Amino acid sequence: GQSYEIRMLDNRKIGELPEINGKLVKSIFRVVFHDRRLQYTEHQQLEGWRWNRPGDRILDIDIPMSVGIIDPRANPTQLNTVEFLWDPSKRTSVFIQVHCISTEFTMRKHGGEKGIDTFKENENGEYTEHLHSASCQIKVFKPKGADRKQKTDREKMEKRTPHEKEKYQPSYETTILTEVR
């Protein structure tokens, strides 16, 4: 239920995709499974979650905190998906909330993956032409669980040699989603 800001930025190079200048684009956020085995049973996993938590959603937009989003939508049948329109030339921040913890779906306690797909409008006014995809892995914990996890991760890292530490990404205040090609 914690709100996390995702800043939407127009990262086009000069002259790239001039057809979207002055137009809105549509972005769709999804929480999907990082674990390959769970990807094959995603529909059943989500149905099981829906059955155990009637009326709840996995992913929502915190509309009062968000800036620059237009027509936010959460399809009642897609609990792990939200979408909205936005103007790439204006400051846009969407605050999302994940309402499940990572361990609800897997015995091995691996997190999910959060992804964003962005589309432009076609000649029929439908947002179906793919522009960009990006993602990052997320791990969601209950508040005390997150503190405990961070502490044990720090302790494990301190025990590693400098050479072993080079294999890991450093910690940052913000996460830049990786472009998906």
Automatic annotation (TrEMBL):
All copies of domain Grh/CP2 DB, residue ranges: 1-181
Residue ranges of the region described as Disordered: 142-181
GO MF entries: DNA-binding transcription activator activity, RNA polymerase II-specific; RNA polymerase II cis-regulatory region sequence-specific DNA binding
GO cellular component: nucleus
The UniProt record lists the keyword DNA-binding: yes
Highest rank taxon of the organism: Eukaryota
The entry's keywords: DNA-binding, Nucleus
Comp. bias (Polar residues): 171-181
Name listed for the protein in its UniProt record: TFCP2 factor
Organism: Pedionomus torquatus (Plains-wanderer)
Classification of source organism: Eukaryota, Metazoa, Chordata, Craniata, Vertebrata
